[in-house]
């Protein structure tokens, strides 16, 4: 497959995604210091006529970017000429039973679901099941274990939630003898919140079903109090779940009937593998286990063998397949032009992709600096990365997810919607700047474009990133900046692409213009970063002062500070660290004994 020289920059009408996300409303509002600083400096910039960064209007119908016939020297050969062929995923993982054919139904009614669930699905504007839902729901209702693989954005969340809620609704638990019967484990907090919100919408008309979220970064004590009541379904992240199992006396997994491992390949990363093993030990051996993933690895197969009983294999497509409705483009970065990446991304956002765009950047610092830069240039954006608290992450997702969740507003900018709503507390944004924290599982409505500042190192990670758009047969676009070191991944992208990959060339004078604007903004960006650092230091000092005042007050009154009377919490991470410390001390002790023995022998 080669690059298509007949390239035209048509802008497709992006269809709305039906499953709108509703981030939990119990989060804490974040400190918008950076937005305040950006707005302050931007007013100064706009009043300075020598710095033209307020607008970059492009005449209607005029796009200076051109198609390119430039190709990498090592052109990807036609698939038919290859001698070696990779095994299909279904050949790698041969279980005793597999779903090779399934009945594609036109309505959820044909899946024999309970009326309360059907009513909720109708309110969520979900009418027709996706292929993965048609294949998995009937099998899961037969109480069979499932090992399922389908591309990202195919509707896996409903594929495991609906059969579980169907069985829980038909056999509700007596409140006087409540036990937790279903558990969904997610690798990230954001994905856990998303699954929890979907489940809450589904059980809207099932008053006897109770659902609880147990994710890190959110209030520990309120979660613990809710878990003591033994809710029917718990959606959790691995670390926080183990901590609750260790510290909440009345909460256990002995009566678990349904266990879901979502994004199983991510759950088996080095940070989660031991925790997943610990959780499975806590669960009942008579459970039904549903394992879902967008990609399948050898580690996932090992987990399937250990945790599933006679599973049914449901592999609907290749693990590395991108969505059929995804249009892929690349911008080639020459070795001596690596410094142009920021200017190219800014040009793309300012000229063509101002709405419903996610930009993936390599580091947390890059996200924050890009946030400040784009804000000064007049674009509404927010950031999402690991340096933010959980409340800040949920706030960022809500601000980005809010825009375009209805047909009436999907084509309006965040500023226009904010003006119409007259509600400054929500502050919706058009652009999300994220690290790979946002690349897994999140179903954000109406994402039109994904931009990769740098290409991921693996095809698997690329699939997860671009899977934020073109979800559930909607149209989307992915634009990646490709350097000389990205040849291997780029060739793999071209092999797997459902359509020819197109090349986008940005005129050198356009890049130079935006590079000049960025250079002029550097001093202002430095001032904003310095102001943020001062604010952090001031808050840290205020926190220390508050603790000191509390201690003085307690000493005068003869009582102990609150921090001293709180009970000791047994954290899983601390236990793991203690084991390593004991092992290290034991090795040191043994080596000393051997050394002493050698010295005595020599004497």
TrEMBL record:
Tree of life domain: Eukaryota
Q: Motif location (Q motif)? A: 106-134
Cross-referenced CDD domains, in alphabetical order?
A: DEADc_DDX27, SF2_C_DEAD
Domain Helicase C-terminal intervals: 340-522
**InterPro entries membership:** DEAD/DEAH_box_helicase_dom, DEAD_box_RNA_helicase, Helicase_ATP-bd, Helicase_C-like, P-loop_NTPase, RNA-helicase_DEAD-box_CS, RNA_helicase_DEAD_Q_motif
Q: Which residues form the DEAD-box RNA helicase Q domain?
A: 106-134
Could you say which enzyme class this protein belongs to? hydrolase
Q: Name one Pfam family in it.
A: DEAD
Can you supply one Gene Ontology CC term for this chain's record?
A: cytosol
Q: Which PROSITE patterns match?
A: DEAD_ATP_HELICASE, HELICASE_ATP_BIND_1, HELICASE_CTER, Q_MOTIF
EC number of the protein = 3.6.4.13
Q: Domain Helicase ATP-binding: where?
A: 137-314
* Keyword terms of this UniProt record: ATP-binding, Helicase, Hydrolase, Nucleotide-binding
What GO terms are given for molecular function?
ATP binding; hydrolase activity; nucleic acid binding; RNA helicase activity
Q: Which family does it belong to?
A: Belongs to the DEAD box helicase family.
Query: What PANTHER family is this protein classified in?
Result: ATP-DEPENDENT RNA HELICASE DBPA (PTHR47959:SF1), ATP-DEPENDENT RNA HELICASE RHLE-RELATED (PTHR47959)
This protein is called: RNA helicase
């Amino acid at each position: 497959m080669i690059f298509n020289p007949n390239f035209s920059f048509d802008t497709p009408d992006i269809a709305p995604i039906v499953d709108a996300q509703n981030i939990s409303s119990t989060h804490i509002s974040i400190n918008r210091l950076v937005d305040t600083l950006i707005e302050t400096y931007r007013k100064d910039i706009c009043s300075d006529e020598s710095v033209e960064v307020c607008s970059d209007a492009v005449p209607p119908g005029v796009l200076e970017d051109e198609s390119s016939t430039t190709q990498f020297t090592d052109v990807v050969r036609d698939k038919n000429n290859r001698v070696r062929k990779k095994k299909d995923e279904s050949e790698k993982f041969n279980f005793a039973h597999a779903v090779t054919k399934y009945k594609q139904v036109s309505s959820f009614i044909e899946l024999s679901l309970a009326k309360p669930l059907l009513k909720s699905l109708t309110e969520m504007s979900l009418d027709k099941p996706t292929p993965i839902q048609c294949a998995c729901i009937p099998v899961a209702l037969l109480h069979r274990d499932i090992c399922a693989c389908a591309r990202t954005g195919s509707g896996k969340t409903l594929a495991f939630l609906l059969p579980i809620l169907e069985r829980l609704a038909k056999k509700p638990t007596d409140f006087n003898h409540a036990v937790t019967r279903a558990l969904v484990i997610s690798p990230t907090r954001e994905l856990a919140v998303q699954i929890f919100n979907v489940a809450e919408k589904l059980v809207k008309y099932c008053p006897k079903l109770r659902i609880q979220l147990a994710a890190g970064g959110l209030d520990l004590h309120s979660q613990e109090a809710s878990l003591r009541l033994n809710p029917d379904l718990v959606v959790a992240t691995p670390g926080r779940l183990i901590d609750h199992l260790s510290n909440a006396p009345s909460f256990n997994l002995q009566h678990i009937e349904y266990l879901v491992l979502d994004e199983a390949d991510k759950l088996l990363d080095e940070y989660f593998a031991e925790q997943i093993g610990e959780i499975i030990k806590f669960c009942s051996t008579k459970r039904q286990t549903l394992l879902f993933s967008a990609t399948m690895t050898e580690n996932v197969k090992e987990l399937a063998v250990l945790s599933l009983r006679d599973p049914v294999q449901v592999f609907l497509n290749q693990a590395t397949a991108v969505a059929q409705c995804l249009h892929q483009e690349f911008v080639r970065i020459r070795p001596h032009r690596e410094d142009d990446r920021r200017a190219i991304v800014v040009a793309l956002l300012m000229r063509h992709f101002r709405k419903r765009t996610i930009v993936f950047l390599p580091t947390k610092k890059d996200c924050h600096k890009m946030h400040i830069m784009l804000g000064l240039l007049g674009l509404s954006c927010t950031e999402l990365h690991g340096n933010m608290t959980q409340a800040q992450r949920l706030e960022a997702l809500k601000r980005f997810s809010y825009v375009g969740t209805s047909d009436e507003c999907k084509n309006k900018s965040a500023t226009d919607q904010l003006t119409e709503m007259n509600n400054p507390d929500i502050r919706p944004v058009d652009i999300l700047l994220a690290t790979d924290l946002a690349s897994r599982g999140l179903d954000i409505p109406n994402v039109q474009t994904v931009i990769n500042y740098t290409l991921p190192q693996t095809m698997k990670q690329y699939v997860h990133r671009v899977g934020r758009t073109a979800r559930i047969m909607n149209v989307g676009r992915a634009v990646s900046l490709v350097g000389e070191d990205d040849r291997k991944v780029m060739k793999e992208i071209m092999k797997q692409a459902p359509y020819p990959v197109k090349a986008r060339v940005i005129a050198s004078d356009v890049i130079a213009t935006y590079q000049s604007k960025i250079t002029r903004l550097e001093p202002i960006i430095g001032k904003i970063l310095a102001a943020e650092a001062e604010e952090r230091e001031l808050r840290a000092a205020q926190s220390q002062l508050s603790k000191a005042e509390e201690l003085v007050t307690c000493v005068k009154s003869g009582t102990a500070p609150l921090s001293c009377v709180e009970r000791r919490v047994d954290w899983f991470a601390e236990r793991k660290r203690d084991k390593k410390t004991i092992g290290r001390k034991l090795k040191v002790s043994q080596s000393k004994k051997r050394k002493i023995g050698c010295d005595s022998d020599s004497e």
